[in-house]
Structures are given as C-alpha cells and as structure tokens.
Specification:
alpha+beta, 2 domains, PmbA/TldD fold, 6-stranded antiparallel sheet, 5-stranded mixed beta barrel, 9 helices
C-alpha cells in the first residue's frame, strides 16, 4: 500500500528544501537584529471522502503549507506567519515579526529553550507510511464500510455515513541555536456511524479505526459491523434512578479522565493558578499501584517524536509513579514562569501508557458486579480549578457481573481529586487509537443522577 519510491524520494527532497529555507530564515532574522529566532515550516496534503446511503457526499483533496516565524529582541517577542513559501513573502514575514517584537513589552520568561537541551539523536519511529489510494478507491471503501453496517441487523434504519481519510505531513523546526529538526508523518482513518430504531425510539453509535500505517487499519467491513453492533445494543434504553455506585469507563471514554489530569498539571494552568493540582508535585494523587509513563519513542505512536515544539530532546519518563505525581507538563516558557525546568512538553504530551492491573472489559464488569458502564460522555462540565466533575453519560447498567440493559440521559458527578484516589482497576483492553493508551477504568464510587 506504500507510495512508489519516486514519491518517497520527493518527500525527502521536500524536507531538504524546507531545511534550507529554515536556515535562510534564521539568517535573515539575525541580520535584522534579532537576538534569537525560530521557524516552523510544514507541507501537508490529504484526501477525505464521505459517503452516505451508498452515495458520495463529499470528496476533498487538501494541500496546505505554512511558515511561522518568531523572533526575540532580548525579552521582546514577535511572531508572524504566511502560507506562501516564495522569497518575497518570507522576507515580508520576517520584517513583520521583527516589527511586532520591537513594539511589545518585555517578558522575562520569553525566549528559546536552552541550547544544551536540543535533541541530538533522531530515531526512526516509523511514522511515515503513505497510502497509495485515490478518490475512487476511497469511495469504494466507504461504501463497503457503510454497507457492512447497514446489513448487520434489520433494526439498522438509517446511516450517518462512512468516512475514509488519508493525510501526510512534512515539517521542519529550526532555531538560532543551530538546531534543525525534520519530521514526516502520516495518518489514516476509517469511520462509520449507524442509526437503529425500535419501539422506544432511535439510537446512534459509531466506530472508527485510526493508524499511522494503512496496513494497521481495521478492514472497512469490520469498522461498519462494529458501528452497527454498538448501535443495536443501545436499543431498549431505560431510565436510571439517582444513586451512588461504581462507574466503569470504557477505554475510549477513560482516556478523557487522563486528559483532565494532563490539563491540570500543564504549565499554563499552573502558573495561572487555575488548577486543582497546584503544588502537588511529589504528592500521591492516585492509588499506590497506579502508574503513567510517557513514551515519545513508541513505534507508529500517535504522539511519537524525537523532540518537542521547541527542539528539546524528548525522553521517556514517569508522569505518575506509585500513585505519586512525578512532575508537571512544561515547556520552557511555563517552566520559567514557575521557576522550574522544561520537561520537553512544549506542544503537549507524547504517548502516555497507563499501566493495567486487571483483565479485559468483561473481567472488569464481573469484578464491578453492579454499577454503571459508561460508553459515552457528553458536555464540558469539568472545572479544572476546583476539580468538580459533572458530565452527561450513556452506557449500560450492570447487575450480577453482566450487562443488564442500556441507559441514557444520566449525569455522572464527583470531584477529580477523589475520583483519582478511587480508581480501583485499570483493564488490559487498551485502546490504541489515541496517544493516551489506557484500558477501561473502574472508579469505585460516583454519583449517578438519573430520573
């Protein structure tokens, strides 16, 4: 499924061209008087196809490029960008960034990351897997995917359609420390959304597959069938009375809990004092067995990389060790604001692996015995300042260690600080479709508000 060698050679040539352009930009910034400078350049292209009820809805080819330039005159910062790689546009963009910097206030935390932190080792992380697919083939896959879902069960009454996507990106980051980092990556996806109906009404659900390599995608038919299976099992929904009970999050919902943790320990929230985990580094915030490791070097990982958005070398390290918060998530700016050192997370976290201590989802359902299995969470009811958590949810009520019936229109509520402490089990059913690699998560007690 890979592109011909000529196209791979073209990608390498594009990276060489962007690297040369990046060095030229840094040189121009220096000549304009900038004490420090950095530049990011990217070339992106993709194909996205949507079909519904066996017919083509949209076919979209994308091709984007961009240059983002930041200069520092001491502690004064200016940034400008353009989508034009022609020399005249580059010159104008450099001048605009310099003009902005000269008129901004000084910020003691502004500036590049320290030179001695720049990455010097560049591993092949297997992120580049172009897909030799055209619009006709993508349409055929989408139709196959949707058809498999529609044929799965007679109660499938309609479809929200199927989508096929493929994209590739080439980027270069360079700065006046002499650092030039080159990256190329691909992402591919198949998705499908079905609608089922019975006497109690309609239900909708979906499934998708997302990978770096097309060879790792689930088949179109499997994606359609899983979407239909998930939709049909939501039929016969019942209401649930308000109660306190265990709550079990499936992996695709559980990773949201980890996302709330990351948001609360990220530099911006911390130096603004807008986090319920302020001053918690070195404190135990999870059970003693709980572990999270950040691994930037996972092969074909969704957030793998050799360096962060500032060129700082990525490194594998603990985020949570034995339940203790080992460190925050910092770039150089937020680190300086806090009087700390960057953790190599400018631009966000890399792959996070949450260690399992239990079996698969079925095993966790048996262990829970009675409680709510959450397969969908809705709304934005999370306060990162206080940790208060309240979200709409749908899923299944569990009795005697087995799924009893589907439920919806419930609200699950608690406080994240207590919820983290009350995590009882993490399953082995890891969802690999995200950079947050977790299995199902069982929280021993929450409030479930229903009818």
């Amino acid at each position: 499924m890979s592109l011909p060698d000529t196209n791979l050679d073209s990608a390498r040539a594009d990276m060489d061209r962007l690297s040369t352009l990046a060095r030229d930009v840094i040189s121009r910034c220096r000549k304009k008087g900038a004490s420090q400078s950095e530049v990011g350049l990217n070339l992106d292209q993709g194909l996205n196809v949507n079909v519904r009820m066996g017919e083509v809805e949209t076919v979209e080819h994308t091709r984007d490029r961009g240059v983002s330039i930041t200069v520092y005159f001491g502690n004064r910062k200016g940034s400008a960008s353009t989508a034009d790689l022609q020399p005249e546009s580059i010159i104008t963009t450099v001048e605009q960034a310099c003009a902005i910097a000269r008129h901004t206030e000084e910020d003691p935390a502004a500036g590049l990351a320290d030179a001695d932190l720049m990455a010097t080792e560049f591993r092949d992380l297997e992120l580049w897997h172009p897909w030799d697919i055209d619009a006709n083939r993508a349409i055929a896959l989408g139709i196959e995917c949707e058809a498999a879902g529609r044929e799965f069960d007679s109660r499938i009454s309609n479809s929200d359609g199927a989508s096929v996507g493929s994209g590739q990106s080439i980027s270069v980051y360079a700065n006046s420390h002499g650092f030039v980092g080159r990256e190329r990556s691909t992402r591919h996806s198949l998705s499908c959304s079905m609608i089922a109906e019975d006497a109690k009404g309609m239900q909708r659900d979906y499934w998708y597959s997302s990978t770096r390599s097309p060879d790792d995608l689930e088949s179109a038919a499997e994606v359609g069938r899983r979407a239909a299976e998930r939709t049909v099992r939501r039929l016969g929904v019942r209401k649930l009375a308000t109660r306190d009970c265990p709550v079990l999050y499936t992996p695709e919902v559980a990773r949201g809990l980890v996302g709330h943790l990351v948001g609360a320990i990220s530099g911006g929230a911390l130096y603004r004092k807008a986090s319920f985990l302020l001053d918690q580094q070195g404190q135990r915030i999870f059970p003693e067995w709980f572990q999270i490791v950040e691994d930037p070097f996972s092969r074909r990982g969704h957030a793998s990389g050799n360096f962060d958005a500032e060129g700082v070398a990525a490194r594998q390290s603990d985020l949570i060790r034995d339940g203790v918060l080992s460190r925050y998530v910092l770039g150089s700016y937020s680190a300086r604001k806090l009087g700390l050192a960057t953790t190599g997370n400018a631009g966000g976290v890399h792959n996070l692996l949450i260690k399992s201590n239990a079996g698969d989802l079925d095993a966790l359902i048996r262990e829970m015995g009675e409680g709510l299995l959450v397969t969908e969470a809705m709304g934005q009811g999370v306060n990162t300042v206080t940790g208060d958590y309240s979200r709409g949810a749908a899923g299944f009520w569990v009795e005697n260690g087995a799924i009893a019936y589907p439920v919806d229109e419930v609200t699950i509520a608690g406080n994240l600080r207590q919820m983290f402490q009350d995590i009882a089990l993490v399953g082995s059913d890891i969802d690999a479709r995200s950079h947050i690699l977790t299995g199902s998560i069982l929280v021993s007690r929450m409030t479930v508000a229903g009818s």
